User: Which sequence fits this backbone?
């Protein structure tokens, strides 16, 4: 208005009618010119040398704010912001599909891309074509030759686990150290192994008569890749392990990921990668092609000491010594923590399983004891972690020999009626897989101090139990006391794995 006012003072008009028409006309001309410039800029921004183009490729408006001056406000228009978001969404859609494809879920990757808002985008159509081509080259895995490896709680501090006390021998036999576990993961990855779930290896299919029948899974992997199953026993962080160099509890961190607590020498508690779950998670995060469609390990629980480091068993409510030492003990809070962590683990790709409630030898105890233990598992553990159809037998035991199960057998019926369909013992052979109409059975290979020590060249050069998996001479942790005691050596407080070695 300052220019107009100056003009008015020079002309000394006597009435507004003398200048209103020129003013309106001039204003209209200016607006038309501005609109034309805006249209031209938006349609020809590339011709302006990219001066108004953002790094994302979304065009900015040539004018911002109310001032009418290009670029002064520094704010994006709603359209510009939406355009930038769309570009980021495209990148996100492509990245998510790429991760699925790296985990061999090409069907999922293709379906997601075709269902996205960018289905007709050239990048998307090329990605779909590439996934279709790769999918056509996949090879069906022979599920009768899927190996299954397992671990117990990992040793965080060897100096504490192997300190010469009464539990050292047991730890030395059946535990694996964190350095060993990390080397095993890397070597198995380098050799083309891909982690799958038990439910990938076998699944139940409904028959015409309404019954269910176990069928071999349909696992498709690139040529040269080899499917395998991983499990971990006793994910309970027993009381007797306190102070012996192991994690003490599984928790959910601030990012919603399962981690483990570890008590340091000064009494402080740290949260981090102190056991199999967070270490495996991190490895798969860095190597997504180590996991088939997001598969992780199968985790097995007893219940007599609680689950996942939480003291949830009914016995703690009447344990006067424990209650005196833990005056703030809250059973319901402990149980809710287990529910939360178990749900987190399932969402993270883990399968959850029974290891019996009392760590019992299922082939040796009486039928009455087996039934009692199975009921305790259902009421005190499964009620917290959710329904499970998997049982991993303690001590490497089984309810029968290697022949197919007699499904009319009383022991089998107790387990079957409890809902178990996937049943695993311990067997040092490379493969032991058995499909029954009502069950899937698999042997597991212990990758622990005992197995590794007695496969070392200096211990027994004729043994080759682990050659297909990794180089034991490179993996074996030399901080272990040697010789590792043979199985049958008396140990205290540690569940021995004796069968099938």
Assistant:
């Amino acid at each position: 208005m300052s220019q107009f006012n100056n003009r008015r003072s020079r002309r000394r008009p006597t009435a507004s009618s003398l200048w209103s028409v020129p003013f309106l006309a001039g204003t209209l001309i200016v607006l038309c010119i501005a609109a034309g410039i805006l249209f031209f800029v938006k349609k020809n921004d590339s011709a302006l040398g990219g001066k108004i183009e953002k790094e994302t490729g979304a065009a900015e408006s040539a004018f911002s704010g109310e001032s009418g001056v290009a670029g002064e406000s520094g704010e994006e228009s709603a359209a510009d912001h939406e355009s930038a978001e769309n570009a980021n969404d495209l990148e996100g859609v492509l990245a998510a599909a790429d991760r699925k494809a790296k985990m061999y879920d090409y069907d999922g990757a293709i379906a997601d891309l075709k269902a996205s808002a960018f289905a007709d985008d050239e990048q998307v159509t090329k990605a779909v074509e590439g996934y279709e081509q790769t999918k056509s080259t996949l090879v069906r895995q022979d599920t009768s030759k899927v190996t299954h490896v397992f671990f117990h709680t990992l040793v965080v501090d060897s100096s504490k686990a192997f300190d010469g006390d009464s539990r050292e021998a047991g730890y030395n036999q059946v535990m694996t150290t964190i350095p060993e576990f990390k080397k095993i993961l890397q070597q198995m990855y380098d050799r083309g192994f891909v982690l799958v779930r038990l439910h990938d290896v076998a699944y139940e299919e409904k028959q015409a008569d309404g019954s269910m029948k176990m069928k071999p899974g349909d696992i498709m992997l690139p040529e040269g890749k080899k499917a395998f199953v991983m499990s971990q026993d006793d994910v309970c962080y027993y009381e007797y392990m306190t102070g012996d160099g192991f994690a003490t509890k599984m928790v959910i961190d601030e990012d919603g990921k399962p981690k483990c607590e570890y008590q340091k020498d000064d009494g402080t508690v740290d949260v981090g990668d102190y056991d199999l779950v967070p270490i495996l998670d991190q490895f798969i995060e860095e190597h997504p092609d180590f996991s088939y469609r997001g598969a992780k390990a199968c985790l097995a629980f007893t219940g007599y000491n609680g689950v996942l480091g939480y003291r949830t068993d009914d016995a703690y409510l009447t344990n006067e010594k424990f209650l005196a030492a833990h005056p703030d003990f809250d059973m319901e809070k402990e149980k809710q923590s287990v529910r939360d962590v178990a749900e987190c683990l399932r969402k993270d790709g883990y399968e959850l399983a029974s290891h019996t409630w009392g760590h019992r030898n299922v082939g040796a105890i009486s039928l009455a004891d087996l039934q009692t233990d199975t009921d305790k598992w259902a009421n005190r553990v499964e009620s917290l972690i959710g329904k499970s159809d998997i049982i991993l037998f303690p001590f490497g035991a089984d309810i029968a020999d290697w022949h197919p199960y007699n499904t009319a057998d009383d022991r089998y019926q107790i387990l079957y009626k409890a809902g178990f369909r996937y049943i695993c013992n311990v067997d040092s052979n490379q493969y032991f897989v058995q499909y029954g109409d009502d069950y899937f059975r698999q042997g597991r290979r212990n990758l622990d101090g005992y197995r590794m020590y007695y496969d070392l060249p200096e211990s027994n050069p004729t043994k080759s139990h682990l050659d297909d998996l990794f180089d034991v001479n490179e993996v074996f942790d030399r901080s272990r006391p040697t010789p590792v005691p043979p199985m049958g050596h008396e140990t205290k407080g540690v569940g021995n794995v004796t069968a099938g070695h």
In short: Residues 110 and 129 are 9 Å apart (CA to CA). The domain at 147-475 is CATH 3.20.20.370 (TIM Barrel).
